[in-house]
Design goal:
This is Transmembrane protein 267. This protein has 187 residues and is an all-alpha fold. It is built from 9 helices and 2 strands, in the order αααααααββαα.
């Protein structure tokens, strides 16, 4: 049975909001944050202390993930903050891949979380693109790329929320979230 589809007007509005002034400014802010955070992490007092370097790097991953997801969904209601915090958390724990692979992240409401794969996509991608400036991207089964140019990392990170939002639209996830769960995404 087909789910009720969003009207053409709703679809057009969703696409227009994809490049709204607020989301574009937020993306520019995200790019600036990436640049400034990476400059800060280069200070010798951070680089010389392993735990401080790891903690700082992990915090930047988390902030990029939560900021990116905030751009994708917009912050319209109180429950949106929970999703944004979760996206930041997921961006931070990606380094602990055994945590995810072991299935220790038990979500009782997993069937109602149709947005979770998209949240994981943006969290995972933003994390690995940022790591790609140092180590390159690992693309199975082809191996590693050369390290990403810094400008490309900033550009990908700043545009990733828009790509994710557009993919939500193309796959119908945006509509499903609205119909099934009452979640409205305005980007």
């Amino acid at each position: 049975m087909l789910l009720a589809m969003a009207s053409e007007t709703d679809k057009a509005n969703a696409l227009l909001q994809l490049f709204s002034t607020a989301s574009v400014i937020s993306s520019l802010g995200l790019g600036i944050f990436c640049y400034l955070a990476d400059r800060l992490l280069q200070y010798s007092f951070i680089q010389q202390t392993y735990w401080l370097r790891a903690l700082s790097d992990n915090m930047v991953h988390g902030i990029i993930g939560l900021w990116s997801w905030a751009i994708v969904i917009g912050l319209k209601k109180k429950s949106d903050f929970t999703e944004v915090i979760l996206a930041g958390f997921l961006s931070s724990v990606i380094d602990m891949d055994h945590f995810i692979l072991a299935g220790s992240l038990s979500l009782k409401l997993k069937d109602s979380w149709c947005f979770l794969p998209w949240m994981m996509f943006i969290s995972w991608t933003s994390h690995h693109v940022r790591d790609g400036i140092r180590h390159g991207l690992w693309i199975c089964p082809f191996g590693k790329t050369v390290p990403l140019p810094y400008w490309l990392y900033v550009a990908i990170t700043a545009t990733l929320p828009h790509l994710c939002s557009f993919l939500l639209y193309l796959t119908g996830t945006r509509e499903l979230m609205s119909i099934k769960h009452g979640i409205r995404i305005d980007v």
